[in-house]
Amino acid sequence: MQTLDLHELKADEAIKCFLNEYENYQKTREAFRLVHGYGSSGEGGKIMRRVRQILQDNSDKLKYSYGEDIDGNPGYTIIYPNQKMAPFTDLLAQEILGFCEVSKVQGKILSKFRKHGDSNIIRTLKNLEKHKMIKAGSKGIHKTWTKL
């Protein structure tokens, strides 16, 4: 079984690498071990939490087994890719979904992800809404977004 080791990368780099490599493994439907580490906080690291959220969001496209269920080690996951992941499993969409676990006003979202550009952020929000992954609301005069 091949191993993809992400735990030495920064979270954004790790997720991008995982998404790219998943496509390669999916083409051959080859299972692989994803080493994401557990994080130094003792509560699970950013990479592990984000990878697991992606896996849960795409559970109809793949199967997976957490390391702690296999041998007690939460620092890796075995992934069995079957189909391509959802069309909005991209880095910006995943970051926005993670940020909007609790309702956020649009201004905060634009500020947090400003490096991506306002038009790209708004387009991603609308696409996520179209695919029923996030919902729009309001808080006073401000538009809000919340992950479903």
UniProtKB/TrEMBL annotation:
PROSITE patterns: SMR (PS50828). SUPFAM superfamilies: SMR domain-like. It comes from the Bacteria. Residues 4-82 form the Smr domain. Keywords: Nucleotidyltransferase, Transferase. GO terms for molecular function: DNA-directed DNA polymerase activity. The keyword Secreted does not apply. Its EC number is 2.7.7.7. It is an enzyme of class 2 (transferase). This is DNA polymerase II. It comes from Lentisphaera araneosa HTCC2155.
